[in-house]
Amino acid sequence: MEVSVNNLQKGFGGEAVIKAVSLTVKEGERVAVIGPNGSGKTTLLRLLNLMIFPDQGSIELAGKKVTGLGVREARTVRRGIATVYQSHNLIPRFKVINNVLSGKLGSWSTSKALFSLLIKPLEEVGVREVLEMTGIEDKIYWRTDRLSGGQQQRVAIARALFQDPNLLLADEPFASLDPRSGEKLIEILVGWSKQKNKTLIVTLHHLEFALANFPRIIALKNGTIFFDLPTGQVTPERLQQLYGDDHQGA
Amino acid sequence: MQKKVPSYPFVVHQESRYDSTLKGLLILGGLLILGGSYEISEIDISLLWSEEGAEGARDFLLGLYPPEYSREFLGFVIKPTLDTLFIAILGTLLGVFIAIPLSLLATSSLVHRGIFSSGKADSALKRLLRIAPFIMARGVLNLFRSIPELIWALIFVRAVGLGPLAGVLALGIAYAGVLGKLYSEILDSVDPKPIEALHASGASKMKVVLYGYIPLALPDLTAYTLYRWECGIRAAVVLGFVGAGGIGQELELSMRMFDYREVATLLIILCLLVGMADIISGWLRRKII
Amino acid sequence: MDIERKCPPALTVIVILFLITVLSIKGLDLDLSLLFSTDALKQILSYFYDLYPPDLSGGFLREALIASVETLAISIMGTFFAIIIAIAFTPFAIRTMSVGGWLSGEQSTKSSLLRSFIVFISRIVLNVLRSIPELIWAIIFILVVGLGPFAGVLALALHTGGVLGKLYADVLENVDPGPVESIASTGAGRMKIFFYGILPQALPQCLSYTLYRWEMNIRGAAILGFVGAGGIGLLFYKSISLFHSDRVLTLIIIVFIMVNLVDNLSLFLRKKLL
């Protein structure tokens, strides 16, 4: 899905968080969004998956304007966008399969959702497939809160993949994991994007991950685009300028 | 002249003085209210030790022993005991059924918060249409909750006649009010992050409730419902006094006949019933985490 | 894991609840068709319809207002005495304090057995107080002190005393042991440990729950009049029995206002106190 953002502005309580951001991400492209805390990364992602709406400017997804939609239309657009969060945001009491299935709720009827929840989980084959991709197929019937933090994040990614989105957004998905598990998970996301030629936009805290896995880096600072470059052109000086003195090198 | 005083401690000082004045007023008002209440409720502790009072108490207490344990009476009270239990169960379940839709309408995070709204600004009429069910649901719950179940029972006895149905309906209405308010408070306090995740994948409100709100809140919802069922047993006994069946009706009869031995048995059964409900619901609560 | 998979708990719970419902309906011999027949519905609706308009004549309003002030007074005094009863029982009903807990030194097996016994008995008494509804206590106390609001006060006091006593004991038992131990380790006496270590931790919850019980007692006091223990309940009973439907509506409105006033006052106080 092609993402095109034009002169986007968003503020909370009078304070501008995103100021005049414009960018285009092509179909199948993989982009890392970096920047210091409070630079507006999370807000940008929430604008892209239509959880919040811009004060000004427009967003086009796959060539279609998605700002100013009604509730139902916005919901339909969201079905094509999957989001992975920093804290996995799963339901702790659910079995893994139900959490993964909840990714498809948008396209299910209410009676199907009810049946799957109360009588018997549906579409087990598809769930096994995505769990296999994220490497925890054996935990399909475990209660989610019995898994470790890294395993739960794998379930969250499986849920996002199960949604079969055209655009996958991830908001610092590995910030609360140790670097090694983070690395494995990022490979899963990148592999999925390459294989299916789907767009992937990830905000990242770890610069090494961004530089090693993404061909394009967008840096946000104070709600504006600080730089937007192919990874090869990102120099240490630029990063120094981006983070100022307080940056410790990830 | 004084130097510039830092503003922070100054403000705190002001506030604490204001607080202590308020506290003093509250205590004074409280004492006045207590004194007034003492007068109005015609309290006369000496009555408890007066000859008449002591006699009444003695007659009653001595009359309790030994509890009526004839096989005939024990066999007879099985049915009313079960009836009380059934009224409590059905009343609570009816309350739950009425409370669920009303509490969903009355949950402010389902109505007010932005995640279910679109980017478009709503017209005034649309906003009213969205808020009106919320306000009405809160009002209905408040009405159900404010009127004691015994008064509901009296009304339903008039409306559907004597018998357990009136008790079930009364309990159902009163507990719908209590549970509905609790449910909406519990649903309002669930972790918003999984809710946002579900919503971001394009799930509709109903499905977010099914896959988000309810499983997140389930332990609290069950715990409070079970606690209400415990209260419901006591309430079901009381409802019997106005003709809604069960052990309360027998208790009223035995009291009126001054048959205190039967009263003793019935009171023992009541305590056992409540104690048993306490144990069962405690066990179930530990099961559902 | 396989068992979990074959037998989803949600379904089991639904089936069990359904069976319990059916069993209860059968057990009570309920004729549910009554509820769904148009005649019965008409009868119910016409009853509610007849309530309107409320009786707002000066004489009755005055009577009702006096009765509601009495109801308020009963609820306040009932809660007040309940607190006294609860406080009197609490020290005997706390396990950690009496059995080898912070407030006791080293003890012989015999005395600790005695203490366990005291706790056991206190808990049973509290449970009995709590299990018997206020209306039944009211009937009992009418035998002792005669008809009138005093019997109502005593009834509320005993039932609520049982509830609060158990609650106070539970809250005091479950305080965070850290602060308590740090005070005990300074060699403070029992009283000091209690007033500086245990009570401050437990007080907000106890106060808040006591106010909540007061809210419940205003509803309780509103029905005590059914058996002659004072308050607005007597008017209710009379009006319903004598088919004064318009008066019933007036009383419902008054109780509704009164209960909401008390709820909001108690909410305000709880916020102030915490």
| C-alpha termini separation of chain A | 31 Å
User: What integer is the average pLDDT of chain C?
Assistant: 85
Tell me the β content of chain A. Answer: 15-25%
Number of strands of chain A: 10
**Tally of helical segments of chain C:** 13
Supply Rg of chain A: 18 Å
Instruction: Please report the first level of CATH classification, the CATH class of chain C.
Output: Mainly Alpha
Helix content of chain C: over 70%
Query: Helix coverage percent of residues of chain A?
Result: 25-40%
The end-to-end distance of chain C, rounded to whole angstroms, is 46 Å
Q: Give the CATH H-level superfamily of chain C.
A: MetI-like
Report the principal-axis shape of chain C: globular
Unreliably modeled segments of chain A: none
The helix/strand order of chain C is: HHHHHHHHHHHHH
Strand order of the largest sheet of chain A: 6-7-8-3-9-10
**Low-pLDDT residue intervals, each spanning 5 or more residues of chain C:** 1-6
What features would you highlight for this structure?
heterotrimer; A: 250 residues; alpha/beta; six-stranded mixed sheet; four-stranded antiparallel sheet; 36% helix; C: 274 residues; mainly alpha; MetI-like fold; 13 helices; 0% strand; disordered N terminus
